[in-house]
Amino acid sequence: MHTQKGLAPLIWVIIVALLLGIGYMAYKTAPRKAPGSSPDDAVVSQIPLKSVDIEKKTEEVRVAEIDTSDWETYRNEKYRFEFKYPSSWYWSGGNRDYDQYLICLNPKGSAGDCSGLLTVSWGVRFEDRFQAMKDMFSENSKVAESMIEVDGVKGRLLIIGSINGFSRSAFWEKGGYIYNLSTGANKESLFGGLISTFKFTK
Questions:
Q1: Do residues 99 and 160 share a domain?
Q2: Helices 188-197 & 51-63 angle (0-180, nearest 10)
Q3: Is a pLDDT exceeding 50 seen at residue 41?
Q4: What number of CA atoms fall less than 13 Å from residue 174's CA on the CB side?
Q5: 140 in helix, strand or coil?
Q6: Are 26 and 95 part of one and the same domain?
């Protein structure tokens, strides 16, 4: 009896040591997140954004048969452009600060963040504007880059991958103005319709 009682504390020490050892090994082998990363970073990092995939997605949007026959037409006489948007949507906007004009698009009856956003900027270099937006998107999402053409003008396209899906942001420049069209996640038809109907006017 005395021998068993003497062994009991030793057995508990061994059990505690084993548990601590297992815990330490689990801690050492667990995947680490970068400092300051969000809980969603691990999910976002798994989104494949190979350039070939991006080009394929861009081409699919460009050639998709999008019926815009019943869409409304937005026309801007000052900045000389027009585009179509869904008839069940509405637009709002105007001058922002002294160097930008914006048009916010949303389904009727909704408010808040823009599901579609077109901005016209001036007084800034194209590369600076593009890089600033790319850096902003890259803070919390995976971003890939491709080329795009809008009414005969070559531009650049960002495809942003997040846990919510893919969103797009196109940039092009003409006549001293920088145009930037962005749509929310999983709005391929909206993006394709806006881009395909965008026209410069005289």
A1: yes
A2: 60
A3: no
A4: 17
A5: coil
A6: no
